[in-house]
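ENTRY TYPE: paired fold submission
RECORD: A
CONTENT: sequence, then structure tokens
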Amino acid sequence: METSSYGGNSGSPVFFYLGADRGGGGIYVGNPELKLAGIMMGYFGENSPIKIIETQKIPVSDRNLGIAAVVPSYLLEEILFGKELKTLRGF
């Protein structure tokens, strides 16, 4: 996914925010939608030492390439509702 991610973000939910201008083949004039894209599992960075740039409150890194690895939500559904976990839950 084209987004920034940093150490410590793994396991966080990733959402798509679909604004009021998107819809099935046309302009959607209703409320914006929030959809689960998946779960963050890592990011791609350069193989160079990290350089920290101090800001007023938050240190940022210039190392991140802006590409993150995300486990897609359809795979999460397969895991959570698969036979093995259903058996463990007693269903």
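RECORD: B
CONTENT: sequence, then structure tokens
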Amino acid sequence: MERIIFSLLVLLQFSACSSQSRFEEFIHDFEIISLPIEHMQDITTEDTLGGKLINDIIIRSQKNNPQYVDINGNTKAVKQYYGLYPEEPFEYGHRGKRLYFYPKISPIGQLDLNEDYISLIIKVVGFETTFYDLWNFSKDGKALSVICLFWGLRDDGPKSEEVTYTIVDSKITKEGLIKWHENADGLETFRTYKLNEDGYFEIIKEEQKGEYEF
């Protein structure tokens, strides 16, 4: 029995070391970005990541959803990240032809928001949308918190990467504060996020204007 327990402990330790090694290899694709960042879409790269790779490291390997701290100080799960980044091409028809659009997932860069954590920006160009996500990890590769920094729609779909309508946009100050803005169907939300000492993005200020237009 003791041998079985010892063997299981060795396997668990090996798995953890292997996972951390993969994460350390993964983050080498992200170069350090200096602050402040005024225009999110100005930061780009031609490098791409595989959808399966990024999902295996960021999402499938995690036991819990990433979390954030709301304006009242409550820790909440980021529910929209149950989903995965695109792994397969999107099939669509054009003038009677069957075509395929291949999403681009790019390692935009790494931010130094706190020396105890690792913060990465990932860009995804989907079939009709473009977005930038900011993920924060512990040093051993556990995804703690995430913010969508930018989300825009492209009217021309796969024919153009030019964003025609911006829903979410952000600026990041030299102090590392994220100035976040969303315009969703007439309701504007303004937030200021910071990375707290526990590694979670925390809303420290929030204001809303307008109302939803149905």
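NOTES ON RECORD B: Residues 5-16 have pLDDT under 50 and may be disordered. Residues 2-27 form the longest helix (26 residues).
STATUS: closed
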